[in-house]
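On clarity, I found the account of how folds are encoded harder to follow than it need be. Since the whole study asks how a given chain folds, the encoding of that fold should be made plain. For illustration, here is how one protein appears when written out as sequence plus structure tokens:

:::
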Amino acid sequence: MKKIKKLYIVLIGLAAGVMASCESKLDQSPISSLGSSGFYQNEADFLKALSGAYEGLGAYPINHFELSEVRSDNIYSPGTAGVRDYNLINNFSTNLATAGIMNSTWNDLYNNVMRTNTILDKLSADVVPDESMRTRIEGESKFLRALYYFDLVRFFGRVPVFDRPVTPLEALEISQSPASEVYELIISDLQFAISNLPEEYSSAGDLGRATSHAARGLLARVYMTRSGTQLHPGGPALGTNEWSEALTLLDQIINSGQFDLVDNYADIFAYDNENNEEIVFDIQFLSGGLGVGGEYVQYHYPEAFARSNGIPFAGGTFPDAPKTVSADLMASYQSADVRDDFSVWVNYQDNNGNTVQDRFIKKYLDLSNLGVDRFDFELNFPVIRYADILLMKAEALSKSGGSQLEIDAIVNQIRQRAGLTLPLVNVSYEQIMEERRREFIGEGLRWHDLVRSGMAIDVMLDWIATEDSGNKISTDITADDMIYAVPINQLDVKEGLYTQNPGY
């Protein structure tokens, strides 16, 4: 497929709907009159602002790698000193409230919420007379707002809900809402997006925009997350048993005939095969020193590897804290499985010619496609792909007492693509989740899957007992660990406004 790129414009100030912070750092108030009165004057202005809202997805791959992959049994990264934020995450530290990644994740997501809220607040027939375009802008904005709030509820549980721009003083009166109320906004936004966005776009310039199928896929994931086993009373899994609702949406995507599995697993992530038939929704990146490259790739490889392989302005993980693909995950792949060889780099030579014994995720790294520096990788990042749609269906069928033959067929279809020709029969729920683990290594899904399944505590304790030879990771894992700490500076904004999640 010809490679076509969508350049998302990085806007300045309130042109992108960016909200500045009061001393509270809640990021709720405009920093100039441009966003509130001088910018949103015509359709072109709204499309630029919408591009800015998409640009906020740039941190998505980083957040989900650090807070989902590193948290899970996929990555072993306790660190020798244990001082990196991701070491604290890996080690199930109770001191995460002061970690920088908690603060940056919270602020980034709320900045993005405010971008979409500003667009929705300013959008009207007076400034965008074309009804179809106005509805599309609303649908895309609501899709993005739903995605940002879904991240907030999965990471933090109870969070404040802002469904419109508010002043700093108003923000100081809005406390946390339970997950059930956050979901109400998420579901409403996605239902609007499903009803009002096209199934696909005809213009190459619209690649990467949310479609109705992307909204269906995300809403199915939302329903399944809500339906998961409730371990934490304030967490994202509520035991709502909405598997049939998810199945309806997944079948609509499957029956559309618009998507398919790419024949070769590696081709999903090929730099010259982006926007392929397996992609339901991805985040667009572009190299060339333009400020819209994929920084996320450098969060996987070691710094010493980057230097020895000529990655400009190398970056990478620190020598005292490698992000090692776990031995347990590697052992779960059968010898004929192509996914581990493609996805994981095993051992490398440093600049001195010494062999470093390590394993790191390389599925997004192509040394023949380097940008100008470590912030400039151009490969798009998949948020929802067709394999996920299929395996979510298998999971929902398993949870709702659906056809075992259909479950087996789906799982074997995924496995066959991976080079595993011997079919499985009577595939269990646990086998489905393990197949997801192997299929989506490095895609930021594993911890969310463990929380949704209700298996997180048991799986992690078993894994730590065999993997953590250095006794670095806490074994005091409880339901409190299903979500993260509210950043300490948010608690300091106003006494009593927010309460810390238990266990931190």
Notes: The beta strands are 75-76, 159-160, 176-177, 279-283, 324-325, 344-349, 355-361, 381-385. Confidence is low (pLDDT under 50) at residues 1-36. The radius of gyration is 22 Å. Residues 131-156 form the longest helix (26 residues).
